[in-house]
């Protein structure tokens, strides 16, 4: 038996969430872990998958797959499942991974569960726990069927380094023109920035920041912490910040180790997007802000005073 | 252009979630149900596309009779007709099969829905429908323009956007800012009463392994606040 893990990269390195998916697959104890990567990437980078528990990496070194074409990716993964004989596919939940896995589920007749938050319980059957109602609740379900697909939420397991190195093997699937019915004409991406869904630390601002011109101090704080920046829905709605930074029920759901909210009151929709964070720090001048109820640490004070001081203190502590 | 918009019937985003029946069923007491926020964006864009280049918007829901007020709201917003598949939406695969069956019969040029429902957050129905129909599927789509047979889309990727081109027909999972939510006006509410409704009995899905929800529970501390 073996488990297949679909991995993605960002800025030339395997994404941290993908490494977590490998750790997750290794911890499942369902046999050898084989990772699969689509598109061009350095072999030396792919070997690193071994450090988290993969024994082998299947590499589809095809230039056409450098961008995420959903249909083509699904065809490759379905073929890899069949040819490797793996019964389980694990992936990190992502903007690309889930739409791809949905098609793989149809192609292979697999059962598919997303937002998995913990290792499956295999003492009797195959029970998985996932978050539902956008993090407001959890459901435990029994997955039936021969082939299973699990999309894992960030921080479901801890990264575990094993010191190993994976063997990289070429994998050449059959792809047809119909797999490439979609043409990607342009990509706009912030290079070198910490990706919000991947980030270990997130600094978010709300309407309390008063305007887009005041984001500099949040970016400075984020820079010192190696954090990504986020924002509340009203902020992205009025266009102060780009939409991909919107954290909340209808935006990006984050689960960082540390979440710092500045000038965000804490509407239930925003909380739904952050409630799987490990530690929440809230900075708000209104002591009645509902966010304080969900916070581990709260600072009642003016963001324009607190944030620069916090940045300074972090700089001094380094 | 014939557009099919699939909508979910879900608790309002401000709802506190709790369960009944030994933690197997949502406790719907006091819960206000709405069109899924992402589906609402899809519906708004479908109506804009129809206003630009003609055609029709059909709204589809897989659900029992309690979803009718939600469907009626979609008609009031501007959909031309509604189809309700009279069945409890037990899992994503089941729902995808119902949608695919309706889509096959109706010959739609474009199938839109939200990127995910906000109850079970599966985010997989659009991909499944695309695969079942042998059409491309794209998600999450934040911009959608159509010219003749060609669509130009923007899809959100982590840390940015990707622009794509493809031909009709296809399936898209939508999110903001694809369009602004529309609020029904009085005329819409009145005409919604006389619009055409179709009730489908459910299409019988072929037997297939799936998941059975066993139990639900709330996060640590039992409070939604965290």
From TrEMBL, chain A:
Superkingdom of source: Bacteria
Start and end residues of each Electron transfer flavoprotein alpha/beta-subunit N-terminal domain: 3-184
Cofactors required: FAD
Keywords recorded for this protein, A-Z: Electron transport, FAD, Flavoprotein, Transport
Co-factor: note: Binds 1 FAD per dimer.
Similarity comment: family membership: Belongs to the ETF alpha-subunit/FixB family.
Protein's UniProt name: Electron transfer flavoprotein large subunit
Source organism: Cesiribacter andamanensis AMV16
From TrEMBL, chain B:
Region (Disordered): 201-226
Aminoacyl-tRNA synthetase among keywords: no
Keywords: Electron transport, Transport
Boundaries of every Electron transfer flavoprotein alpha/beta-subunit N-terminal domain copy: 23-205
GO terms, molecular function: electron transfer activity
Organism: Cesiribacter andamanensis AMV16
Top-rank taxon: Bacteria
Protein name: Electron transfer flavoprotein small subunit
Keyword match Membrane: no
Residue stretches spanning the membrane: none
UniProt cross-references to Pfam families, sorted A to Z: ETF
């Amino acid at each position: 038996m073996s488990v297949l893990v679909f991995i993605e990269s960002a800025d030339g390195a395997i994404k941290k969430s993908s490494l977590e998916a490998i750790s997750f697959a290794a911890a499942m104890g369902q046999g050898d872990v084989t990772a699969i990567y689509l598109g061009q990437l350095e072999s030396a980078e792919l070997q690193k998958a071994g450090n988290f528990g993969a024994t082998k990496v299947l590499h589809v070194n095809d230039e056409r797959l450098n961008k995420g074409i959903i249909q083509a990716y699904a065809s490759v993964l379905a073929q890899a499942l069949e040819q490797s004989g793996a019964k389980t596919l694990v992936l990190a939940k992502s903007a690309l991974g889930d739409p791809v896995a949905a098609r793989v589920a149809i192609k292979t007749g697999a059962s598919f569960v997303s937002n998995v938050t913990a290792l499956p319980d295999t003492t009797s059957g195959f029970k998985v726990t996932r978050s539902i109602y956008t993090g407001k609740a959890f459901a435990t379900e029994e997955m039936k069927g021969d082939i299973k697909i699990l999309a894992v939420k960030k921080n479901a397991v801890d990264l575990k380094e094993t010191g190993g190195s994976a063997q990289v093997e070429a994998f050449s699937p059959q792809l047809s023109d119909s797999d490439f019915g979609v043409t990607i004409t342009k990509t706009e991406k912030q290079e070198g920035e910490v990706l919000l869904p991947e980030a270990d630390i997130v600094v978010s601002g709300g309407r309390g920041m008063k305007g887009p011109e005041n984001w500099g101090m949040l970016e400075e704080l984020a820079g010192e912490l190696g954090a990504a920046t986020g924002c509340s829905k009203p902020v992205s709605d009025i266009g102060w910040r780009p939409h991909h930074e919107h954290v909340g029920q209808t935006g990006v759901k984050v689960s960082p180790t540390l979440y710092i909210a500045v000038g965000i009151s804490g509407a239930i929709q925003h909380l739904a997007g952050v409630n799987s964070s490990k530690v929440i720090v809230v900075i708000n001048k209104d002591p009645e802000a509902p966010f304080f109820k969900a916070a581990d640490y709260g600072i009642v004070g003016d963001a324009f005073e607190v944030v620069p001081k916090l940045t300074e203190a972090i700089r001094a502590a380094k | 252009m014939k557009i099919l918009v699939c909508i979910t019937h879900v608790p309002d985003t401000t709802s506190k979630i709790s369960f009944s029946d030994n933690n197997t069923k949502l406790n719907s007491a006091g819960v206000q149900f709405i069109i899924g926020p992402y589906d609402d964006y899809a519906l708004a864009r479908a109506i804009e596309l129809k206003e630009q280049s003609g055609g029709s918007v059909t709204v589809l829901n897989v659900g029992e009779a309690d979803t009718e007020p939600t469907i009626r709201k979609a008609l009031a917003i501007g959909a031309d007709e509604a189809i309700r598949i009279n069945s409890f939406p037990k899992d994503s695969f089941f729902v995808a099969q119902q949608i695919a069956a309706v889509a096959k019969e109706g010959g739609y040029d474009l199938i839109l829905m939200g990127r995910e429902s906000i109850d079970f957050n599966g985010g997989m129905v659009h991909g499944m429908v695309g695969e079942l129909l042998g059409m491309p599927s794209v998600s999450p789509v934040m911009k959608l323009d159509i010219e003749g047979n060609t669509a130009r889309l923007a899809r959100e990727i982590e840390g940015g956007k990707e622009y794509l081109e493809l031909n009709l027909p296809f399936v898209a999972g939508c999110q903001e800012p694809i369009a602004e939510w529309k609020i029904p006006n009085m005329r819409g509410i009145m005409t919604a009463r006389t619009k055409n409704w179709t009730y489908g009995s459910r299409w019988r899905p072929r037997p297939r392994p799936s998941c059975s929800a066993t139990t639900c529970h709330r996060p640590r501390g039992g409070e939604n606040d965290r």
